[in-house]
Amino acid sequence: MPNADTPDLLTSVPTIEAVLDDHASEVGHDLIGYRNHVYRVVNLCLAMAGEDRVEIEKVAIAAVFHDLGIWTNNTFDYIAPSVALARDHLAARGLTAWIPEVEAMIADHHKITPSRASPAALVESFRRADWIDVSRGWRRFSLPRRFFAAVVAEWPSAGFHRRLVTLTIHRFLKHPLSPLPMVKW
Question: Is residue 85 part of a domain?
Fold first, then answer.
């Protein structure tokens, strides 16, 4: 894990930038907030899982696609569309061997209980990283508060958390019996 006082953060990942550029018109005014969320999740995940080059690319791909279905499919029930986007991206680049792990990271990122996907380590780190960010550090899974603060200082919310609240309210008004379809036990 990077030093909590002087963390070594990833600030630019070509895959993330390319995918977000490709979907900029769909994400629209939420682009900066979503980009910042993606980088927060990547850095939080790698702080827990390690920084192997292959892991960095897998985490980057999972992170950039994990919520993208919200905008590409205009839905708050976005796990399946996000998985499909990631699967297509990996297949187009000849990385089909990564599909099960990246799909598991996306599919389980809102799971309340630990992931049982295999291999579990990276999937579980990704799940925890997203929960840390969505909860704004309330739940940190033993990640140092200073490290989380450094990540947030580098990539502020930029309206992302407010957007999640708005989407949740809209979903609840339309589907009161299924307000958070992406959350699972």
Answer: yes
Tracing tokens 């033993």 back to the chain, one arrives at 142
pLDDT at 7: 59
The answer to whether 58 and 101 have CB atoms below 8 angstroms apart is yes
Contact 39, 130 (CB under 8 A): no
Indicate whether 72 pLDDT > 50: yes
Our count of domains for the chain comes to: 1
- CA distances, 80 to each of 88, 147, 150, 162 (Å): 12, 32, 32, 23
- In a domain? residue 4: no
Mean pLDDT of 82-107: 97
Q: What is the pLDDT of residues 49-64, one digit of tens each?
A: 877 777 899 999 999 9
Is residue 3 pLDDT above 60, yes or no? Answer: no
Instruction: State the amino acid at position 73 in one-letter form.
Output: N
pLDDT (average), residues 31-43: 98
Q: Is 117 left (phi over 0), alpha (psi -120 to 50) or beta?
A: beta
The domain of 82 spans 14-174
Give how far the C-alpha of residue 133 lies from the chain's centroid of Cα atoms, to the nearest Å. Answer: 9
CATH number assigned to the domain comprising residue 71: 1.10.3210
